[in-house]
Amino acid sequence: MGAPPAGLELTPAERGMWQAFRRGGTHDLRAQEPERNDPGGPHPWGPERSVRARVVALLLLDGPHAELGRVSALKLIGVRITGTLDLSGGRVVPYVELQNCRFDQRVLLPECHFTTLRLIGCALPRLEAARVRTEGDLHLARCVVQNGIRLTDAHIGTDLLLNHLVVRRDRRGVSIAADGMSVGQDLQAELMRSYGELSMRSATIGVSFSLRGSALSNPYGKRALNAPQLTVERTLHLTSAGYSSAAFASGFTPPHGITTTPERGVRVQRFECEGGVRLDDGRFGDAVDLSQARFAMEADQELSLRRIQTPELRFLGEWVRRGRVVLSGARVTNLVDRVESWPGPGGLVMPGFSYENLIPMGHFPLERRLEWVAAATPEYAPEPYERLAGVLREGGEDADAREVLLAKQRRRRETLPPAGKAWGFLQDWTVAYGYRPGRAAVWMVVLWAAATVYFANHPLARVKPDEGPAWNPALYALDLLVPVVDLGQGQAWRPTGAAQWVAAVLTLLGWILATTVATGATRLLRRQ
């Protein structure tokens, strides 16, 4: 029951693997010289370290019974697997863990069912695993895959670990195809390097999705990360990662420029993306965190966050060149941002972007916030200004909210014909479109004093001789400027000549200024 099938001539390396499988032990074929144990290195691995893929498949799909008191498992270290390992549609019951192994040809796992599968530090041409299912984890940590990974519609029972993975694109330009994939718990892809498009359309992550310290690069196509309708129950981390100097002793090489904290011997690698990012219609239960992320895009590429929904967006990254940020229709509760993180004019699009609280990190003055809104609206649109003013007002910053609404009116004035611009400029110069009622009160006093002086030097004629109050230029000017006040002067005295025009202008300005003061007072009373 434990012997290999008749006619299957096993090599010494395969016989050792066969016996190790039956007792659940580890079959270790590493060389004494460490430099010869790199699966992706130039040194050849001879027959003494090689096993055939068909023998591995036989062990996993229809292997011998375990020795008494043992549990069978396939555990290999430093082994070369020749031929194509094809487990398509099979059910693999034994535990599988392959470390620092070299695959000569692609690995085929479509629709295969595993308990747990761990490939750690292996080198393989390609991994085909569409619709693969695992009851436990799937580990591909520190592997190097030359022609892409396919995990379309895969179902991972617990965690998917891709830490330190290096994966290059397939012939379609895709590094990892994981559309429709579901992960029961965490997807950890920290310090990973992806050369091609990482595609995760309609994927579902049960807890968090971490790309901390990873480098995504796709100079061949439009996007480096393509994940519309992605669902993450907690947080999407596109942030930096820290790791100790001991990682270098194990042969790890960071993707790009790193910073070092000498006192602790800790190195920090930020998340870097060369190419577009698409997260449209995503749902994130806790947050989307872009702290210290670094984006390098061409003019036609975007960080697209259209219609995403999340309680918190931490927009704290860095733009290297060009590209756009698109937040159209996105809905967030807390927007945590930094003034340096946003692209310049023409690089931000956010019609319909809804946020309830602004939490700036560092100094973010109102004039820069207004530039932020202006950068998002190359053509005038009132909604971004009204949204910002509403958020500031809810936060108790009424003065800043009025400044935003005033900026909205000034921006609107630029779209008006010449007559409208002139009238708008007059409103701005005199009463600031009603958002500064104190200025209107000052103008009332100035006009009243000027009118008093004018009418003192230009007495008017009585409407009815010997009737009405005595002439008083100060009261007459007040009668004209304050429409709700009737001191009798306006009915008793009649202007003539140029005084008629002065009186008409004062009456018009009085209505405008009085209305502005009343509106401002009403606003203040409502906020008490």
| Multimerization state | single chain
Assign an overall shape: rod-shaped
Enumerate how many helices there are, as a single number. 11
Helix content: 25-40%
Distance between the termini: 88 Å
The SS-based structural class is alpha/beta
Q: Report the radius of gyration as a whole number of Å.
A: 37 Å
Overall mean pLDDT:
86
Give the total of beta strands: 48
Largest sheet: 13 strands, parallel
Unreliable stretches covering 5 or more consecutive residues: 245-263
The largest sheet has its strands arranged as: 1-3-7-11-15-19-23-27-31-38-41-44-46
Q: Beta-sheet strand percentage?
A: 25-35%
Describe the protein.
- This protein is an alpha/beta fold and 528 residues long.
- Among the domains are: 16-107, no CATH class; 430-526.
- 27% of the residues lie in helices and 27% in strands.
- A 13-stranded parallel beta sheet has the order 1-3-7-11-15-19-23-27-31-38-41-44-46.
- Helix 6 (398-413) packs antiparallel against helix 7 (418-431) and helix 8 runs antiparallel to helix 11 (498-526).
